[in-house]
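If it is no trouble, can you show me the amino acids of a protein and the tokens describing how it folds?
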Amino acid sequence: MSFSIFTNIMTMLFCTAVLIQSVRLMRCLRTVKSDDFGAMIIALDASTIQARTVLADLRETLRVDCAANARVIATGTEMREELTIMAGIADAVAERIVDAVGKATPNVAAKAKTRSQAQPSSKPRSRPKVPQTPRSSKQTETRKLTESAV
């Protein structure tokens, strides 16, 4: 068998395979082309119209929301600037207070020292003990009842 005969046989096999696939494709196209094809196109048109209205609504919503967000961001920027100024003022006040406390601390320590020297140190006072009185039987019963209720 020569090379040319072999290639001719292979070409015939490929052509037969193409013919078989063409027949299968024609059958599939006929089923798609049936009466349901018109209903399917109408449904696709309706879906396309709904999608367009939804997209138009989304565009409008985004346009409105973007403007609102821009206003909120502008307000936030202003508030940030105000808070920065307020924080600066608070830092300055805190520094003044620290300086004032630093200047006042030696005077307060000296006054406390003179007071402690003027008064003799004494023992810490303890609470006087209150003598326990014997309870009556009614008080004891009342106490038991309240403890059991709790």
Q: What stands out?
A: Helices lie at 3-32, 36-118, 137-149. The chain has a mean pLDDT of 79. The first helix runs from residue 3 to 32.
